[in-house]
Amino acid sequence: MTDLEAAARAWLAADPDPATRAETQALLDANDEAGLAVRFGGRLVFGTAGLRGPLGAGPLRMNRVVVQQTSAGLARFLLARGGAPSAVVGYDGRHNSKVFAEDAAAVLAGAGLAVTLLPRALPTPVLAFAVRDLGVSAGVMITASHNPAPDNGYKLYLGGADAGSQLVAPADQEVLAAIEAVVAEGALPPGGTGVTIAGEDLLERYVRATAAVASGTAPADVTWVYTAMHGVGLETVQRVLPAAGLPAPAVVPEQAHPDPDFPTAPFPNPEEPGTLDLAFALAAGTGAELVLANDPDADRLAVAIPDGDGWRRLTGNETGLLLAWRIASRSSAAGGALACSIVSTPGLARIADRFGFAATETLTGFKWISRVPGLLFGFEEALGYLVDPDVVRDKDGVSALVAVLAAAVELRAEGRDLAGLLAEIEEAIGRFDSDQVSIRVDDLAELGRMVDRLREAPPARIGGLAVESVDDLTAGGDLPPTEGLRYRLAGGARVIVRPSGTEPKLKVYLDVVSTAPTAVERRAETNAALDALGAAVGPLLGV
């Protein structure tokens, strides 16, 4: 019997799920070594946003055994910290999310924790809010965010000194060690009873806190369209809007309610081409002037505005600068900070400097952004925005929606619009444009080799621009060490090369800036610079 077969048979004996037991048995019956290897040849580990992977059998898939073992390890970690630990568990509308959440809650309760379970599928930011609101030791959210339908995940927040942020080192390794200890014992932990179902008052507190983001907004009528992308955002958004005094949207009916198969958006990331087509069609039919979209767990926000006869999707960087400008220009805080990930636009530093705030770059992920001292606002280019750090210490697509809609309403009252505000920001700080090139690989080891080749033969020029300095991100410094290289180029341009934290891809982030006198000149300059940098990526990486 091979090691893989032995692991599969041990798993089969412990698995409580008939579907994944049948999957494992079929692989054993067929002597499918390759199928066994991709399920039993390792274990999911905590990445940028917790555990995440396809549904299926084995420790390299998301299933009930993985959820129960992970929850037992979390319980051991919390109990080792002392005191009387507690937890809150939430879930989205994906396949198996509810049963995974119930399993997690039962295991945590069985270990002696006081456990609260959210009453139904709700947005991830509601769970992140609940960690702080309830004052618990940890929060678990069962979600795979905007991943395709076959995936699910386990996202972990810590209370106490971590104040509701996602876990970082050394806690992540301590939790992993506790999980491994549970696995080594070979038996699933017992479940417990006595889980408390959260009342509607918790959601109402989130609604009130989120509505306050629009405080002071002058009333004005804005016609807009909303899509929940087959996710869980609609109910919460519809409760927040009247509390905030903001206008109701036309809702894309085909994508309004949770559907784990995402029939109109197989890859339900609002950045993906085609995912907003139904929203644009509804906007055309209703004369809307704004489209807002959440991803399936409502922790991200996409924004689109009219552009001639069509629609202009704002990039995450554009929306980030817009929100940063609004928040910084309205804030009376002294000594606060605006923050973004290292791969987000350098334009944020210009806004921070203009309004007298600190500008901070962090590693990718809101587990880092949320921990910036004195944080007023944080974002990353992948449509994630943290607009209310005192309420939620994670990206929150609902509060970001309120902030963008409030800005649109305020501008309307002044006879202006979001496009005009973006033009004003560009006039003030320059035009910052960004692009991204992704190179997918079959062999994960190739990602490291590609970066190592650049270290061994550093370029003097990229896309015709001189390399002025190189930062090897593995060396640490102002940031914790991470794999990647950052090139600062002549004229304020920047290139960052780093492996993806969630996919077998090497990502290359391109940033350019122009302060030419006119908008036409600025656009021409940044477009040309991005084209040149993009064309240089292949030769730079030898692909």
UniProtKB/TrEMBL annotation:
> What is the superkingdom listed in this entry's lineage?
Bacteria
Swiss-Prot/TrEMBL keywords? Isomerase, Magnesium, Metal-binding, Phosphoprotein
Protein name as catalogued: Phospho-sugar mutase
Q: Which Pfam family, giving just one, matches this sequence?
A: PGM_PMM_III
Give the taxonomic lineage as stored in the record. Answer: Bacteria, Bacillati, Actinomycetota, Actinomycetes, Micrococcales
What residue stretches are annotated with the Alpha-D-phosphohexomutase alpha/beta/alpha domain? 44-179, 206-309, 316-423
Q: Which organism is it from?
A: Amnibacterium soli
Family under the similarity heading: Belongs to the phosphohexose mutase family.
Q: Which SUPFAM superfamilies match?
A: Phosphoglucomutase, C-terminal domain, Phosphoglucomutase, first 3 domains
Named cofactor requirement(s): Mg(2+)
Q: Which residues form the Alpha-D-phosphohexomutase C-terminal domain?
A: 451-516
Q: Which InterPro entries match?
A: A-D-PHexomutase_a/b/a-I, A-D-PHexomutase_a/b/a-I/II/III, A-D-PHexomutase_a/b/a-II, A-D-PHexomutase_a/b/a-III, A-D-PHexomutase_C, A-D-PHexomutase_C_sf, A-D-PHexomutase_CS
